[in-house]
């Protein structure tokens, strides 16, 4: 028996706790939601396909367990899901307009955003939410410094860049309200102080510095690309 088959058999024989079941159900719901969003249409086939893909991922390629800190707040989580769906619709229309409008192609950029979410699990969910919105995709994650390097489709003006940072900050606040409120946060392992991100990073772009100030030191760091 191969090592993969042995590992799979061992996982299937391992009894699940109530917490494990709830986490797996949440993963199935989230992955199914993302699958339906990617297809762009809510149908029985898409929902069943999302459930099948989610089960296959959980069984064949499970992610390592991450410590779950904080607490889920259902109403804030529902608001977060609705906000992501709204951004998906609006961004889809904007990307469609950029593809058919007359004139030169949009100016793209790689922008750097600092985030303050504490849990690696919530950080991963935040990255997923950014990726499902058309026009933005996370290219790199500096997990230790909590920095995201994001490719933005339309960054031809300072107003567009400011709007991008405002959207990321709003999404981050909603994730914190849904999963990481200060009152019920219990961090298991205290992380070391994040290191300073070098400004000469190969993917460096416009940045949101800690404390809410936007960092754009100069044209040598913020480089929109045509």
From TrEMBL:
Keywords: Cell membrane, Membrane, Transmembrane, Transmembrane helix. This is Na+/H+ antiporter subunit E. GO terms for molecular function: monoatomic cation transmembrane transporter activity. It is found in: Cell membrane. Residues 217-226 have a biased composition (Basic and acidic residues). GO terms for cellular component: plasma membrane. Residues 188-226 are annotated as: Disordered. Belongs to the CPA3 antiporters (TC 2.A.63) subunit E family. The chain crosses the membrane at residues 21-38, 44-63. It is a multi-pass membrane protein. The keyword Transmembrane applies.
């Amino acid at each position: 028996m191969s090592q993969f088959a042995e590992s799979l058999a061992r996982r299937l024989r391992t009894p699940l706790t109530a917490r494990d079941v709830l986490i797996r159900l949440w993963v199935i719901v989230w992955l199914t939601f993302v699958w339906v969003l990617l297809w762009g249409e809510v149908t029985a086939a898409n929902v069943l396909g999302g459930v099948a893909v989610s089960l296959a991922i959980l069984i064949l390629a499970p992610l390592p367990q991450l410590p779950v800190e904080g607490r889920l707040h259902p109403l804030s989580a529902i608001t977060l899901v609705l906000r992501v769906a709204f951004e998906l619709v609006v961004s889809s229309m904007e990307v469609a307009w950029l593809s058919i409008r007359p004139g030169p192609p949009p100016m793209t950029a790689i922008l750097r955003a600092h985030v303050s979410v504490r849990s690696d699990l919530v950080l991963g969910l935040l990255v997923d939410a950014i990726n499902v919105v058309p026009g933005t995709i996370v290219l790199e994650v500096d997990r230790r410094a909590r920095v995201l390097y994001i490719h933005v489709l339309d960054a031809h003006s300072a107003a567009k860049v400011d709007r991008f940072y405002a959207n990321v900050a709003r999404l981050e606040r909603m994730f914190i309200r849904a999963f990481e409120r200060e009152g019920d946060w219990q961090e298991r392992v205290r992380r070391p102080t994040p290191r300073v991100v070098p400004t000469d990073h190969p993917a460096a772009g416009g940045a949101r510095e800690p404390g809410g100030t936007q960092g754009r030191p100069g044209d040598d760091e913020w480089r929109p690309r045509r």
